[in-house]
Amino acid sequence: MDYGKSIDVALRFIEERVGEDLTASGIAASAGYSAYHFDRIFKDAIGLTPIAYAARRRLERALDDVIAGKRLIDVAMDRGFQTHAGFTKAFRKCFGFPPSLARLRARPRTAGAPDAASLREYYMGGFHMHPHIFELTPFSVVGFPSRHAGRAGKAVNASTFWAEIGLDYGTILTELYDTFPLSKHFEVCMCYDVDEESGEFTYVCGRGIDVPEDLAAIRPGMTRVDVAGGLYAAFPTPLVDELTDRVLEDHWNDVFLRWLPQSEFEYDDNRRDFSYHDRRDHGEYFGGKLQIDFYIPIRKRGAGMA
Prior knowledge:
CATH architecture of the largest domain: Alpha-Beta Barrel
Radius of gyration: 22 Å
Helix content: 25-40%
Strand content: 15-25%
CATH topology of the largest domain: Multidrug-efflux Transporter 1 Regulator Bmrr, Chain A
Distance between the termini: 47 Å
């Protein structure tokens, strides 16, 4: 039997009432079924029960609010959560990272009516990324950090943010490579110390230091930022002619909004994510194509719960 029309009816019902207290029997009745029977039909089609899907849609709406720059306490209240802490806990459990990171990293998503085929692909693992998961050896970054205001509704591309703020990237890197000659050739760009409410963050784009003897050469005005080791997932960007903002934003969105929520991991916010730039960023390999890596600190889901 083709249950497609019934599923579509239920999806519209949920979408129009996503902020309400929905029940399994109410959703099933909208499609003309009993709750027991429709739970199985819906889960076979979507990958989640109707109630689990409704809860997910409420949090996805909240995600859009957070990305747009709304205050977290307002999002929590508007989306039916009793407390800020309760909202943050549910958000992290759903997506695998805290709301503050969504505001910084994610680009606003294109709204559209959900359909059963695309939802089944999304919730049942139709999207695949293959990161390298490994134990990172600690290292340091030396550069010139600066503090910046949060940007509602606009993702921050750490890899190119230096150009947006007018940082003399070439001159700075030349100085850093001349000062620290022993470490291998790599640069790191990162945003960290994100203020949960305002979205304000610290930015650094600097020279990676993996030979401790180099650190003795730090000069006045330079700042050392230590990157802790531990479990990381590294995501190479696609090989492209130009690493545009759109390419980088799409890659971050895939990491945070598609891979991480479906994975067995969550973001470990005791450590820092960053973009990693080596000679691939200069077109020295792959026939001149460019590539960098995004590194995110991870842990098994629930491992950070008190």
